[in-house]
Amino acid sequence: MKYLKLCFVLLLLAWVSVAEAQTTKVRGKVVDAETGEPMPLVSIVFVGTTIGVTTDFDGNYDIETREEVSEIMASFVSYERQTVAVKKGAFNTIDFKLVPIVTHLDEVKVKPGENPAHAILRNISKNKKKNNPAEKESYSYTTYTKMELDIANMKPEFKNKKLQKNFGFIFQYMDTSAITGKAYLPVMISEASADYYYRRSPKLSREIVKASRISGIEEDYSLAQFTGHLHVNVNLYDNYINIFEVNFASPLSEHGLMYYKYFLVDSVQKEGRKIYKIRFHPKGKSTPVFDGEVNIDSTTWALESARLRMAKGLNVNWIRDLAIENTNELINDSTWFLKQDKILADFTVQMKDSSKLISFMGHRQIDYSNVRINEDIPTEIQKLDNDVIINKDVLQSDENYWQSVRPYELSEKEQNIYNMVDSIKNVPLYKNIYDIIQTALLGYYNTKYIGFGPYYKLVSFNKLEGCRFQLGVKTTSDFSKHVRLSGYGAYSTKDGEFKGGGTVEYIFNNQPTSKLTFSGKHDVLQLGASENAFTTGNILSSIFSRGNNEKLTLINSFDVHYEKEWWQGFSNSFALEYRQMFPTKYVDFVRPNGEVVDQIHTTQFRLGTRLSRNEIVVRQTFDKVSMGSDFPIVGIDLVAGLKDILNGDYEYYRLELSVKHDFNIAPLGYSDIMLSGGKIFNKVPYPLLKLHEGNATYFYDPYAFSCMNFYEFASDLWGAVFWEHHFKGFFLSKIPLMKRLKWREVATVKALWGTLSDKNNGSLPNTDAIFRFPEGMSSVSKPYIEAGVGIENIFRFIRVDAIWRLTHRGDRSGQDVDNFAINFSLHLNF
Q1: What distances in angstroms separate CA 30 from CA 38, 55, 178, 295, one per listed residue?
Q2: pLDDT classification of 376: cutoffs 50, 70, 90
Q3: What is the pLDDT of residue 369?
Q4: pLDDT value at 345 more than 90
């Protein structure tokens, strides 16, 4: 499956990019020749160029260039300069031992004064609006983006193992990183060429991907979206830089003095302009911070270039090293704008530098050209209906095209990565490993045309069905790019029933989405479950069940569903849905006069609307997954019950609205919030009311009430809020012993209010409702509130929450109520 191949690199591909195998790379340390002490702030430059860096506070440095160089020099005030030859186009390790110059001086009186770097920072702040690209009225440019995924920390002993027989040929592609000093093996490379247009007001953002290719992944135009540059925006003028959902304090932040110490270490002349070099060092590590240097133009107070590296010891998962390089150039003799961006990230399970575990490195480099500022955006670009447009005509393109758009030539080693990855795919061992990982990630074991699974539904158990056995199949994209067939069959031992269902999907287009689906099933369903709950038959719902909270209903259903995405951020869904519901011994249908009803029929038309802005969407052949947005995502659902159509028993109308928003509150972490509410018009049986979301398991569900049972509350007018705040270790990281654990705090509040009109309130003594309520179910006119605190990032992926029920406490008639609950969940967060 093409998309699975992307899954191996998705976390990297959306964020990080490429190392130059053709560069001259130098890494080393500078110490005092007499004392052996590390020397910070030493100037390191390639002789004959303006390419230079300063050593960090441990005396370490790394530097690289594609330019022709032959020597590197170290210099520091009151020390003799040293120059050493370098091997061009290769990795070099060069350590310097600087010799102090002995000078006899008369007595010098030093008076305290302001740090000169602070005055420069104030000027940067005063001129931010003028220099920040995001504050420009409009701009456009062309980008060439190169990304690479590498395997790092591979030991020579690997060559002596059985894998050598299958993969030994790959070692000729080994290289070494100047930043980490580790050898790495490139296993994926991608390139993309795009035009980008931006307007501040009214807001407009358009990226036209002209060409894209990824080694080892066959042509699939939907993959091109991952090779654009929009997935991370490293803007040092922002107060915080969000990378991998981690908010790093920017060295140019308005609050930079809270997080960093600044040192003016040098001023140099570049192309006739005076550039200040400022080194910064973190004051503490309770907030994610960098260590590095910025170069500031003395005339405009704009950022000329920067080198940043993630400080060691931060409460950040999976990333052992993160380095950013930013280079700007002068446009129209007055405006500094992006010229090149680089990011390197070293991903590992074990964070220690001494770890012997294999890790992964991702690199990204974006080169900007043809920059145009404050020019009108062409009308045809403004009329485009997606933020990312992919030109299918030149999607993959030939080598001649790539040579014409690259700002530099690829080395032979880089060019051969494409061939190497294709060769790996043909190794039988690779195919076996690929099948195992594919099954683990997606749940299905795929042959060429059919997948079998999901494995987590093969066996499960519950009170109604006893032991349940299920097997499903679905076709793959190799079977058809337009039609997907899926189905499953199940048998349960306690009720002795066979159940099953099937789906036929036809995709007209996947960007923008146009898709028709027919589905039907005969199965049990938990009414009132949240959108995030385990689906029927999931073994995890059985293992972590709370035991007495399952109230399943047997249902026959048939749906016709059409989804139409008009443009990015605006889509509709149209559905005709038929339901035949049967009572069970846990959920009965009884009229007020005591008559037992053996089934009810509903037919309804549903119109759904979804609104989002600047949302990142992963598009597969048949499916799409939201990766979030910086803006609220709004859903509107309108349902009309159709009486006497397909045996529909009831006429009713239902309006429901939801708003989801995730937002950062740096440096205090981030919040996830969902607001929802709705109204049901006309008289309906209780299964058609809003049955509020209970939780039948010990697994935490962000959109369910942890201490609430199923069928405890129902409404025909309601509003609810689900709020979580993740502090990212803001408090615990300040406690010495807790800091080592890298645990993180989380707080939750969930609240619900709802009412029932008398005609729908089956809990009243002399009710006029269609059915009596199940024992213990009532309205929630008195607000239901629960709150909790939790610890996440236990062993980096476990979260435990303690939740208290603040209202409606104590046992209720027909309901065993939990006033306190412990939930756990699994999360893989950076």
Answers
A1: 6, 7, 15, 21
A2: confident
A3: 92
A4: no
- Do 89 and 23 meet the contact criterion of CB atoms below 8 Å apart? yes
> Does residue 590 carry a pLDDT above 60?
yes
Q: Is residue 308 a contact partner of residue 250, using CB atoms and an 8 Å limit? A: no
Is 291 in contact with 308 (CB distance < 8 Å)?
yes
Structure tokens at 687: 């299964």
**Which residues is 823 bridged to in the sheet?**
801
The gap from C-alpha 416 to its chain's centroid, in whole angstroms, comes to 31
More confident residue, 109 or 526: 526
pTM: 0.80
| Range list of β-strands (E), 246-357 | 246-249, 260-270, 273-282, 290-297, 303-310, 319-331, 335-347
Mean of pLDDT values over 475-486: 93
CATH for 443-826?
2.40.160.50
The helices-and-strands tally (H runs, E runs) of the chain is 12, 44
Q: Give 219-248 pLDDT, tens digit per residue.
A: 444 444 444 433 467 899 999 988 877 889
76 HSE (CA, 13 A, CB side)? 22
* Measured distance CA(259)–CA(250) in Å, rounded: 9
Q: Give the list of residues 6+ apart from residue 125 with CB closer than 8 angstroms, or none.
A: 254
Task: Give the residue extent of every domain in the chain.
Answer: 2-15+125-425, 443-826
Residues in the chain: 830
What DSSP assignment string belongs to 571-600?
A: EEEEEEEEEEEE--SSS--B-TTSPBP--E
Q: Is 814 exposed, middle or buried (0-12, 13-18, 19+ CB in 10 A)?
A: middle
C-alpha–C-alpha distance, residues 629 and 231, integer Å? 11
Is residue 85 scored above 60 in pLDDT?
Answer: yes
- Round to whole Å and give the CA distance between 472 and 454: 7
Q: Is the peptide bond before 592 cis (omega within 30 degrees of 0)?
A: no
Q: Which two tokens stand for residue 369?
A: 């050209």
Please give the single-letter amino acid code of residue 195.
D
In sequence order, what DSSP letters do the residues of 67-105 get, joined into one string?
S---EEEEE-TTB--EEEE--TTSEEE--EEEPBPP---
Give the three-state DSSP class for 660: strand
Phi-psi region of 244 (alpha: psi -120 to 50; beta: other; left: phi over 0): left
Question: CA–CA separation, 257 vs 281, rounded Å?
Answer: 10
Tell me the C-alpha distance between 155 and 270, whole Å.
Answer: 42
Q: 57 by DSSP, 3-state: which?
A: coil
